[in-house]
């Protein structure tokens, strides 16, 4: 009984949160994880046919050192 109530509450909460979203914004949101890697973005575009607005990684500036921590 409680599990059914919990599932209904979860469904209602998700439905309420996504109520004002259009299909375009949901598609754009699903492609965000691939936006920071141009190579992966190209592969996703080829596989899905959807355009991914990829952002090129930031180039190191002269005098600045990129360190992995």
Question: Can you characterise this structure?
Answer:
This is Cbb3-type cytochrome c oxidase subunit 3. It comes from Pseudomonas pergaminensis. The protein has 69 residues and is mostly helical. It has helices at residues 2-17, 23-31, 38-48. The protein has a domain at 21-57. The longest helix has 16 residues, at 2-17. The mean pLDDT is 80.
Query: Structural class, judged by helices and strands?
Result: mainly alpha
Beta-strand residue percentage: under 5%
Topology order in helix (H) and strand (E) letters: HHH
Mean pLDDT across residues = 80
Number of helices: 3
Q: What radius of gyration results from the CA coordinates?
A: 19 Å
Give the total of beta strands. 0
Give the overall shape, derived from the CA principal axes: elongated
Largest sheet: none
Contiguous low-pLDDT stretches (5 residues minimum) are none
What distance separates the N and C termini?
A: 49 Å
Give the helix proportion (percent range).
40-55%
Brief summary of the model shown:
The protein is an all-alpha fold and 69 residues long.
In terms of topology, how is this protein built?
Elements: H1 2-17, H2 23-31, H3 38-48
Keywords summarizing the entry:
single chain, 69 residues, mainly alpha, elongated, 3 helices, Cbb3-type cytochrome c oxidase subunit 3
